[in-house]
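User: Hello! I'm new to structural biology and keep hearing that structure can be predicted from sequence alone. Could you demonstrate with Gamma-glutamylputrescine oxidoreductase PuuB? Please show me the input and the output so I can see what each looks like.

Assistant: Of course. The first part below is the input, the amino acid sequence of Gamma-glutamylputrescine oxidoreductase PuuB. The second part is the output, the predicted structure written as tokens.
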Amino acid sequence: MNTRVQPSGPGHSHPASYYAASSLPQPDYPALTGEQVADVCVVGGGFSGLNTAIELAERGLSVILLEARKIGWGASGRNGGQLIRGVGHGLEQFAPIIGEDGVRQMKLMGLEAVEIVRQRIERFQIPCDLTWGYCDLANKPRDLEGFAEDAQELRDLGYRYETRLLQAHEMHSVVGSDRYVGGLIDMGSGHLHPLNLALGEAAVAQQLGVRLFEHSAVTRIDYGPQVKVHTAQGSVRANSLVLGCNAYLNDLNPQLGGKVLPAGSYIIATEPLSEELAHSLLPQNMAVCDQRVALDYYRLSADRRLLFGGACHYSGHDPRDIAAYMRPKMLQVFPQLAAVKIDYQWGGMIGIGANRLPQIGRLKDQPNVYYAQAYSGHGMNATHLAGKLLAEAISGQQSGGFDLFAQVPHITFPGGKYLRSPLLALGMLWHRLKELV
């Protein structure tokens, strides 16, 4: 397998992936040294942290961002690159807490979230291969019934982009596979190069005055009216703190860590395909995703590779050979790729919450400590929304959106640090068995 990685400075340490090998030039931001002071300290150099920092800087606050490794090192730089409308799953379940109007507002924010990404890319001309067009794939007739309800709901919300239901005989216009019984096209969602977006947003943050530090893992936090955040070689004093580490929070804050479960997701990238073959797989160059618990999601890259992902793992153990694990799944969808080489394989952790709603709020006992995590596979857009909501709250702006998310309680996964993953894996196995019925 090809594991080429684009050369960079001595601090280059992104995990090997197609994205790392095709990334923009990567500046090496310094490690934090000495004592620094800012209005806000943001921990985490992924989409949550970067976009919170951008939004805060645009509101006139001084910001220091600390990243333990490299900007975009985690899920932000390794995900499937799918930019899909919506936040959360089954938002109606929260009506007893936030009311029917609150549910509607969350649904509207799920549409706004994609617009935030769209506008950021356009305003700052970030080169990240943004391509519009997405299709939900129906594995069973009941999936298609749900799509019809989704399409009607989008119309009721005033969604301004084209949506269209596809029947089984129309599916080859979107995907060159006989695996699906229908679909829902959404031209307001799409796909992009996530690591290049993260790197571009880091450059935007720096232009706005944000001080970025890499290789600056947080070792301790002193809480209080003013927080003090410690790293191996320095510290930051700030009036407010944002924790945006998601699945990589580790033991930094046990209160938040127990509410997010790291789950592995994996991707393979083929060798570049001929224009004819690539067109036969995805004739409209859309991103697509099916509806199974262990879902498949895939798309074409700008250089016509098939990027095929899925197989969400809750066990905490990665496959020894990701390509050997994922290739048969790809061939179930596209048996015509049997002779095609796999050039890249990689995985990473996404953050899962028990109720599948992004966790955006502040600590009750530390009201100047804010957080955003547990995007449950919808992080590309939800992180950008979270950045806006957090910045509104920290800067003192009225933020009904922040208050809505903050009202929703989130349970701590049972079983503690070492048992919660196996327990959830058993639960997800039950859901997979139900799919067979």
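User: So the tokens describe the shape?

Assistant: Right, they're a compact way of writing down the 3D structure. Reading them back into a model, for example: The two ends are 38 Å apart (CA to CA).
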